[in-house]
Amino acid sequence: MPIEVSNLTHTYMKGTTSEVTAISGVSFRIEDGEFVGLIGATGSGKSTLIQHLNGLLRPTSGTVLVDGVDIWSKGVSLKQIRRKIGLVFQYPEQQVFEETVYDDIAFGPRNLGFSQAEVEARVEKACELVGLDKELLPRSPFELSGGQVRRVAIAGILAIQPKVLILDEPTAGLDPKGRMEILDNIKQLHETGMTVILVSHNMDDVARLCERVMVLEKGTLVFDGPAREVFTQREFLYSKQLRPPEVTLLMEKLRQRGWAVRQDVLTVEEAYAEIMKELRKKGVAGAI
Amino acid sequence: MISRGIVVGQYYPVNSLVHSLDPRAKIVISMIFMVVLFVGNNFYSFAVAGTFAVLAVTLSKIPWKVLIRGLRPIVFIMLFTTALHLFLTPGPAIFQIGPLKASWPGLIQGLFIGIRLIILIVFTSLLTLTTSPIELTDGLEDILKPFSRIGVPAHEIAMMMTIALRFIPTLLEEADRIMKAQMSRGADFESGNMIQRAKSLVPLLVPLFVSAFRRADELAMAMEARCYRGGEGRTRMRQLRLSGGDYLALGLTIIMSALVIYTRIRFGPVIPRGTL
Ligand SMILES: Nc1ncnc2c1ncn2[C@@H]1O[C@H](COP(=O)(O)OP(=O)(O)O)[C@@H](O)[C@H]1O
Ligand SMILES: [Mg+2]
Fold first, then answer.
1. Which residue of A186, B5, B221, B269 has the lowest C-beta tally within 10 Å?
2. Chain A partners of B180 at a C-beta cutoff of 8 Å?
3. Complex ipTM value
4. Burial (0-12, 13-18, 19+ Cβ within 10 Å), A216
């Protein structure tokens, strides 16, 4: 299910005085099983870009190929595309509407016309994937906590069993515990072979999870490459209203003080290993 | 697809004499104009009213293109009423298609109604094009104020209008987003029969109402936190004051009205009574 975007441009309200070109000339290709982070300042066009990948927005110019087929060519069913490419919107809890959690998660599979038994199996599977307690299924989604409703909403997409999962700022507005749990779920989903595209403001999250990072600035793709490469370029990130992850900044501080630690450290675990190595060299590790 | 940037009331912000008029004067002039347009009963009346409208448009610096675009949605209604008159008014025939007979009086009557509609719409859209929604509601509140003694909640009506105008774009944006989110879950808003389509709106309407109620709650809190307690004793940052220009505009309107009444008395109806 590779996704190939070429020369994509999107202009909102074309032909009016308030037209905005939110995406201009973006091209990239995403292979099966990748974990891609999409970052950029607010208004840089992240949400606009991902809405093209499952056919919610139609490109003003350029093409989106899924499995080598232009999704806007004749005879392509967008419903089928959306079944393969699941998109979780920002604040997805605002889309729940059913009387029970079960019905809300079942909304997607029912729309796709699955049998009662199949729907039930899918709902159960989706609950497992996001770590949702089955006790909650008969409850009203409007009674749940923020983190729980968000998980219900993500489960609603997972119940469609897409091959590609796109999440638009899935942790925005959650408490730290809820955030960690959601991120762990996403990581596990990727480990089962799903292609994941994560839109996020949080550099720590992206650094921890993504192998490849794309940076958008004012609708153009200004970086597309390994996470390690982009997060060590402090000045570049600052110029795009972004910043390196906290641990990377810590490593930089240590280097300034003459420590011979690696600069391209992206996670707390890596930082720990580096620091311990250095302490051992200095012969003080035993004291800790 | 619904999207943001839909401007309700279509305010067209430029600097012009008409824009700078007091909103109350503009509302009153528009109302007088509407009445006058229906008092006028021949083409001379329209010449007077039309000249007045053209003068106003010129002074407002609104491009004719914008006004003509505003006429587009009602072209059908206009053609329809004109055609009705053309074919249903008895009198000497111009031509005949089967049982339908186009008559001269019908043609004149049809043109008459069509021109009246065009002038009416051009002039009244000038009100919303040159007055921001906030000014409009402020003006309306002032005009309604004398009626508050007989129980018309002038301030509340104006406040409700202001809030509604403010939140329409927000709600449209939200509707767009929720619709897309549900489409990502395989929802289908476009196909099916009437009942299926009505049903398919539930996943859109429920979240929309939930969020509208939440917003209303939050807004009420925020207003109370800033000590809002209705219109009593409340003063305005922008005081409305009638200036020389406003009196001039009102004066011109009265002269125009007098002229239209004169043409009515002098020339009579476009199709003299008794010929029908
Ligand atoms: N529905 C819309 N109509 C008009 N303009 C929009 C719409 N959605 C987004 N925009 C504009 O497009 C640009 C990119 O927005 P968006 O894709 O939401 O950015 P991001 O998700 O990176 O914050 C912004 O300037 C925004 O104002
Ligand atoms: Mg966004």
1. B221
2. 51, 56, 89
3. 0.91
4. buried
